[in-house]
Write a structure and sequence with these properties.
The structure is a single chain. The protein is an alpha+beta fold. The longest helix is centred in the first third of the chain and has 34 residues.
Length: 189
C-alpha cells in the first residue's frame, strides 16, 4: 500500500511540474511574439472565446493603432512571469492565475514642443495612470513604465494547449462569460 501511495505522489508531482512547464512555455512564446510585435501570431495564444467576442481583426487593429501612432514609438520588453498559482480544475477545464510584469517604453516626438512643457506633462500623466514608482524618464520624451498584470492560463479540451486571458477588474463583465464565477472566487478575484 505504501508503494502505491508513493507512486501516486510521484505521479502527481510530475503532472503538476509538467503542467507548470507547459504554462511557462506558452507564456514565454506569447511574450516573445508581443516583444517582436507579431500580433496576429500572439493572438493565437489568447482564449478563443475572447477573440470571438470582437474578432481577431479588431484586436489586431487595436495593437496596430498602439504601435503605429504618429509621433509615438511604443515597445514592450522584459516580460517576466512573477508567480503561477497551482492548477485549479473546474469541470473539465484547468485554470492557472499568473502574475506577470513587463516594461513598456513610450518614445514621444517632442521636437515641435517649443514651450518645453510637454515632457513634464506626459511624465505626470503616466505617473498618475501607472503610479509614480512605476514610471521613469531619463531622456526627455522617453518614458519607461513598469507594468504589473494578472492573467488566467486556461486549458480546455475544446482547444489545443493553454490559452491566456488578461484579468482586469474593469473587464470583469466580459471575463465572467469566459471564466466561471466559481473559478474567480477560488482565486479571490
Amino acid at each position: 500500500m505504501k508503494i502505491i501511495t508513493i507512486l501516486g505522489l510521484i505521479f502527481s508531482t510530475f503532472c503538476l511540474f509538467s503542467q507548470e512547464s507547459e504554462v511557462k512555455s506558452t507564456l514565454t512564446d506569447y511574450f516573445g511574439l508581443l516583444e517582436k510585435k507579431e500580433i496576429s501570431e500572439a493572438l493565437d495564444y489568447v482564449h478563443p472565446d475572447l477573440i470571438n467576442m470582437l474578432g481577431k481583426a479588431t484586436f489586431e487593429e487595436q495593437y496596430k493603432q498602439l504601435f503605429n501612432s504618429p509621433g509615438i514609438e511604443v515597445d514592450m520588453a522584459d516580460f517576466s512571469i512573477d508567480t503561477l498559482s497551482q492548477v485549479y480544475q473546474h469541470d473539465d477545464v484547468k485554470y492557472v492565475l499568473v502574475d506577470y510584469s513587463f516594461l513598456m517604453t513610450f518614445k514621444v516626438d517632442i521636437s515641435n514642443d517649443e514651450s518645453g512643457l510637454l515632457p513634464g506633462i506626459l511624465l505626470s500623466s503616466y505617473q498618475t495612470r501607472f503610479g509614480k514608482e512605476n514610471v521613469s524618464s531619463e531622456v526627455p520624451g522617453t518614458y519607461i513604465i513598469q507594468i504589473q498584470r494578472e492573467m488566467f492560463a486556461v486549458e480546455n479540451p475544446s482547444f489545443d494547449g493553454w490559452k491566456i486571458i488578461d484579468f482586469e477588474e474593469g473587464m470583469r463583465v466580459l471575463i465572467v462569460g469566459i471564466i466561471p464565477e466559481q473559478v474567480l472566487k477560488h482565486f479571490n478575484r
